[in-house]
Design brief:
Number of helices: 3
Largest sheet: none
Structural class: mainly alpha
Number of strands: 0
Shape: flat
Mean pLDDT: 79
Low-confidence stretches: none
Length: 66
Amino acid sequence: MDDKFIKELREISRDDRRRSEFMIQGMKETLEERKQQNILKRWIRRKKAEKKISQRFNPNPHSDQK
């Protein structure tokens, strides 16, 4: 999602039906952009997410467990 999308989203009232439709459209565009990325970038993004999750739930971040 780009800055223009975020700005427009902030201008729409939370009670407005268009907000949810706008958010759904933005997520679809984001997912489509991710699908268009090459496999290496997708793999790196997935590994970063896995690392963040493991660090969050690992009681000792300096251990050698993966």
